[in-house]
Amino acid sequence: MTKKKFDYYIKGNKGKWEVIIGLEVHAQVLSKSKLFSSSPTKFGAEPNTQVSLVDSAFPGMLPVINQFCIEQSVKTGLGLKAKINLNSVFDRKNYFYADLPQGYQISQYKNPIVGEGEIILDMPYGTKKVGIERLHLEQDAGKSIHDMDPDNTFVDLNRSGVALMEIVSKPDLRSPDEVNVYIKKLRSIMRYLGTCDGNMQEGSLRADVNVSVRKVGEKKFGTRCEIKNVNSIRFMQMAIEYESKRQVELLENNKQIDQETRLYDTRKNTTRPMRSKEDAHDYRYFPDPDLLPLNLKKSLIEKLKKELPELPDEKKERFIKEHNLSAYEANILVSEKEVSDYYEDVIKGCDKKLATNWITGDLFAVLNKKNISISQFPISAKNLSALIKMITSGKISGKIAKDVFEKMQDNDKDPHQIVEKEGLTQQSDPKELEKIISEVISKNQDKVTQYKSGKVKLFGYFVGEVMKVSKGKANPQLVNEILKTKLK
Amino acid sequence: MTNISEFSLTKLASGIKKKDFTSEEVTKTFINNSKKSKKLNAYITECFDDAIESAKNFDKKKDYKGLLSGIPIAVKDLFCTKNIKTTAGSKILHNFIPTYESTVTNKLWSEGAFLLGKLNCDEFAMGSSNETSFFGNVINPFGDKLVPGGSSGGSASALAADLTPGTVGTDTGGSIRQPASFTGTVGLKPTYGRCSRWGIVAFASSLDQAGPMTKNVEDCALLLQAMAGYDSKDSTSVDIKVENYSSKLTDKAKGLKIGIPKEYRVDNMPAEIDKLWKKGIDFLKDAGAIIKNISLPHTKYALPSYYIVAPAEASSNLARYDGVKYGHRSKGNNLVEMYENTRSEGFGDEVKRRILIGTYVLSSGYYDAYYLKAQKIRQLIKNDFDKVFYDVDAILTPSTPSAAFKIGEKKDDPVSMYLNDIFTVPVNLAGLPAISVPAGYDKNNLPLGLQLVGKPFDEQTILNLALAIEKRANFKRKINVWWN
């Protein structure tokens, strides 16, 4: 495959502009209980039913660190090939808001638990390394609900205190496409690790997007704007497109970019200012005196390292080597752990190449059409494997297999049963086929004459007629062979 | 028979066990005293009916296993008590009723004690005279115009006036030891981490520590034993074995080395304080101790760094009192207005002053110059102590630079008020245990205390030394009951 060239630039009136993007992803730690309390973290519970005295900041309540959340973030750090900091500190980020019961968020400011790492992106123009600046742990806030009462704001503290990992990238991303691939790759890594479910609809993954522009060739970064709390990849991409164009327009008209926090308006597809640098909160960060500094033992890190599952990059390499896949195919198959598991289950009993085609082709088409994930896909790996085996053994034709595949989706029916019941077994008896072929030839003498006089393209017509007569059951390979000799 | 309310805690506990008197009799005596002592304003909440109920139940069950079986105890109103109003001396919590019990009080109740009432204190424990309480001044039994000290002023006053046989306070910069000194009682601030902070309304998290306040050293050992211990709910509590302080209590000090820090001989220190200190040295020599002159060179920076660190933590700890979830709420046309009104009306002047100081020193651009520097100094102060503890077993200083002062005398001069904690504050910054034991009187017949500072988690040694002083000082609380 020839590599495409990177070509995402904003074309202004006065030249080409490069877009510089950095992401601060907030990923909810997959854990049963909150970061500093034992309250459950289940999504969608009745408001204020998952709230402890600690989460609602009652007088005298103290945070106690959830060791599991620590391990989850260390695992994530290891998955990002990042430096794990043996000593880190929890700080208080102070600000007032109704859904922030303590009046501060416990976060990590100067000394995060995870330092620099990287994520490899597979782009059409080759692989790209995106730097990770840091990963730190923090508490989520509650939720203010403004539209349930004309005079009052309601507060739901179910999310208050839920553990988040804030994963900060370096300003290494250059296009909405790269952002798309970055988020998906990050999500894939965390799902492989089981550290975040990556569910954007439920708010388990959201991002602040930092955007700036600079003339192509310029070394210095421009002034950036931060677009807060975007909760879908599409919105991130749209926000970046809008925001970068806005900035180019300002700069080309000799206006300044104000460093500010902006909000993306999904309905108007615009960004608008939320607060300027001058209005920025002074969070008065300081180490939380209720918590001791976090000291991790090397042995714990080693233990977690050993327990680390195979991650997408390694799995991809292995798939290329072991299963003889192209980089492109391997990429598709490993992007979701469940898909790669499914794939490996299927190929246990059938041809790998054919299985790859079926999964990346027919199966993915169903997933896309029905908008479901592989775990919701009705056909079990075992039965798909059996279906493919029936093709390679010649029991059914590829064409029939498509129909059988369709029928299998009804309750994961056994393909053997479908084929038996409906009499779909491939006709591979040469005598039977010869009979059909002779019939077709005698019915189409005019076409035979044309064929013999040089219109070789008509061969396909004869194949099609034979298939029609055999109701698609004829073994295409045999049909080809017999037809060729008969038409000589 | 002498009034049993004058008995020590130890004597009451053993008397109840020996059935010399019932828990009900004891409880009624203290309630009776308390009812007659409204002028002292020591209580914020009285739980007298419940206490009598508890005493009656105790007398029926006769379960004498606990260290404090059948003993009624009033506690500082900073400890959250289940279903009992807990105010921290503030308007902002004037109506707050916790659904939970602090670990420390819970430990007392599991040793057989029960709650007599909640005692007055400075608002959020911020004060040295109990004048910042929303519930009014507390009066020192030693004189109707005298402060009892603070912030555990209600506790000290109630104890000295025999309204409770013992009590628990909290000490962030001297809030147990200074009022103990002002009222002729014993007060101990344990090592930071010795007692759980869970369920105690927080002032400054890295300094706050609960401790016993009692009529004598023996009681102090008993009460400390009942309240100390590791708590998994407090990440800063420390899992070190709690000694049997009472059984190990001895006034023998033979061979113990006592440090006398020269930096504590401050300018303008009254001669009688100096005299008391010398007396203390003689007492300990007499008990067999060896006196050593030591230096704690960073002492003079303790007070300024304390008044940066403590308000900084307080400004953040008190952010939760915003009118949204519990406590006082004022009206406002929007969220910010509601916050402003709630906090303006809910907090008193001293609390506001410290929130402002704390907010300022944590602000970006000032953090390094104030908070960070103060933390560095704090480390130096701790290092000073660590170093001298290679050479000495404990340190002897006066508890306070003066005896109890008059109500209103320092109220409008915060700095002179803060100076009252000059001897106690360094101990909190270093997280060490210290005890104040009454050792004499000033010229106006007001009690004065001496402070013993110990090594981390060596409460036993300072209790023993305090006992040695107590025995030799032969201190008697001379109080005419003028307030009934």
Describe, in plain words, how this protein is organized in 3D.
The complex is a heterodimer of chains A (about 500) and B (about 475). With about 500 residues, chain A is α+β, with helices and mostly antiparallel strands. Chain A folds into 3 domains: about 10-305, no CATH class; about 310-420, no CATH class; about 430-485, Arc Repressor Mutant, subunit A (Orthogonal Bundle). Chain A is built from 15 helices and 16 strands. In chain A, the strands form 4 sheets. In chain A, strands 1, 2, 6, 7, 10, 11, 12, 13 and 14 form a 9-stranded mixed sheet that branches. In chain A, a hairpin with a 4-residue loop joins strand 13 (about 260-265) and strand 14 (about 270-275). The model of chain A has no long low-confidence stretch (mean pLDDT about 95). Chain B has one domain: Amidase signature (AS) enzymes (Alpha-Beta Complex). Chain B has helices at about 10-15, 25-35, 50-60, 105-110, 155-160, 175-185, 215-225, 270-285, 300-315, 335-345, 350-360, 370-390, 415-420, 425-430, 460-475, and strands at about 45, 70-75, 115-120, 165-170, 185-190, 210-215, 255-260, 290-295, 395-400, 435-440, 445-455. The model of chain B has no long low-confidence stretch (mean pLDDT about 95). In chain B, the strands form 2 sheets. In chain B, strands 4-6-5-10-11-9-7-8 form an 8-stranded mixed sheet, sandwiched between helices. A 3-stranded mixed sheet of chain B has the order 1-3-2. Chain B is of the alpha/beta class and about 475 residues long. The longest helix of chain B is centred in the last third of the chain and has 21 residues, at about 370-390.
Question: Can you lay out the helices and strands and say which pair or pack?
Answer:
The complex is a heterodimer of chains A (488) and B (484).
Chain A: E1 10-12, E2 15-28, H1 67-79, E3 87-88, E4 91-94, E5 104-107, E6 117-123, E7 126-139, E8 143-145, E9 154-156, E10 163-169, H2 176-193, E11 205-215, E12 225-230, H3 233-252, E13 260-265, E14 270-276, E15 286-287, E16 294-295, H4 298-307, H5 312-323, H6 327-334, H7 337-346, H8 352-370, H9 381-392, H10 398-408, H11 415-422, H12 430-443, H13 445-452, H14 459-469, H15 476-486
Parallel strand pairs in A: 12-13
Antiparallel strand pairs in A: 1-2, 2-10, 2-11, 3-16, 4-5, 4-15, 6-7, 7-10, 8-9, 11-12, 13-14
Chain B: H1 9-17, H2 23-35, E1 43-46, H3 48-61, E2 72-76, H4 103-110, E3 114-119, H5 153-160, E4 167-170, H6 177-183, E5 186-189, E6 210-214, H7 217-227, E7 257-261, H8 271-286, E8 290-294, H9 302-317, H10 335-346, H11 349-362, H12 368-388, E9 394-398, H13 414-418, H14 425-430, E10 434-441, E11 447-454, H15 459-473
Parallel strand pairs in B: 2-3, 7-8, 7-9
Antiparallel strand pairs in B: 1-3, 4-6, 5-6, 5-10, 9-11, 10-11
Helix pairs in contact in B: 2-3, 5-6, 7-15, 9-11, 9-12
